[in-house]
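User: Need the bound-state model for NDP:
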Amino acid sequence: MTARLDEKLELIYQDVLHRNPGENEFHQAVHEVLETLGPVLVKYPEFAEKKIIQRICEPERQIIFRVPWQDDKGEIHINRAFRVEFNSALGPYKGGMRFHPSVYLGIIKFLGFEQIFKNALTGLPIGGGKGGSDFDPKGRSDDEIMRFCQSLMTELYRHIGEYTDVPAGDIGVGGREIGYMFGQYKRITNRYESGVLTGKGLDWGGSRARTEATGYGTVFFTHEMLKARGDSMEGKKVVVSGSGNVAIYAIAKAHELGAKVIACSDSSGIIVDEKGLDLAALKQIKEVDRRRLSAYTEFHKDAKYVKGGSIWSIPCDIALPCATQNELNANDAKTLVENGCIAVAEGANMPTTPEGIAIFQQAKIMYGPGKAANAGGVATSALEMQQNASRDSWSFDYTQKRLEDIMIDIHKSCYETSAEFGSEGNYVLGANVTGFIKVARAMQSMGVI
Ligand code: NDP
Ligand code: 2IT
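Assistant: Bound-state model below.
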């Protein structure tokens, strides 16, 4: 970790380390928030008195369970799944499910912790939670995915509900998986409870613009950062990491706003297309055919595929990390700054290492942390819950406008908070402090629970 904590916060952090051994990503996420809370405790000593931070750092409930399933050959597999119900001060636990072989408790806890503050920033009534499994969906058939989702939901159903905990997608979990999980939930409970999951299909309770929301929201946020400095997305050269749900719709919106995205990636390699990435080809490869990104060169012979390497060595004006945690380190940050990058906004959760963040901040380039910049996904999930509760279905344009307004508001409140606490333009402080104060006030009102 880079910055030092003041004494009181260091004690809290040491306790978190002690109580959660080996959970490095969780430690990192907690440290990053604590680094910015010093001035908040000076202004609001009652939060320290009521031990709000200690309570926020301890999940309300952590569920770990076995998921047995059979592959197409009849072989039995055993995975482990998690749901961490972190904080329900502002509403039912809300956050995605991640299916990736790297998943363990520490990853789910870092994601759940971040989710508390992100969800608070949306201004909508949602608490923070996250779940997932170490299941690897790569190379699995549709039937295998279905059996896995059904087995997972056979345990998870008893812990979730429209007023309790509302899962959604994340890495490895999209519309297909939400469909299989919703089907099993409905079958077990005998309830058509639309609001129990978000990211549903448009024919059965899903919200228009939810698929696009995270990527679109990240670009709306980037645009706001630029506008605050009299600039815009128009004509900017952009690099986006990843090529999944978030990356694809970040690319789409960046193009719509007049920027040119020249590169994206997956965990195997990088595609560089100096003409600007072809969105239709990307969607065909990733969403329809579910292939690897290297297939892009079949569509564009002049595009370059680079196996491995860092995407951040490609010169750009704007960098949008949209793949995974800690994918952008100090060297990458240095290279980006040296190459003239003016803005970084995180579509992914915690993609920049603490050392990378310090370099962006020292260079005084615009840096929008994931909690703020990728909040459009969960915000639109909350809009899906609103539509479900009122048995309504909104148009794409109306939903997108609500999303855009929410991102504008998040940018504004982060900016204003950064100025109020003497660090104008520091969106890390702005996002953490704005989110924290909201949750802390609600917790204080509800007593010691
Ligand atoms: P997808 O599964 O759709 O796509 C993930 C992309 O990131 C893929 O291109 C994948 O490549 C790449 N990736 C994943 N893990 C790694 C890794 N270890 N190293 C390199 N590349 C990797 O997920 P999403 O697009 O939904 O999620 C991307 C990020 O955005 C995550 O951090 C997620 O938490 C965050 N996020 C998602 C939201 C949503 O609504 N979906 C909302 C807010 C944040 P490969 O195929 O090779 O694995
Ligand atoms: O990290 C995130 O905010 C998500 N994966 C989306 C969560 C949600 O409930 O839509």
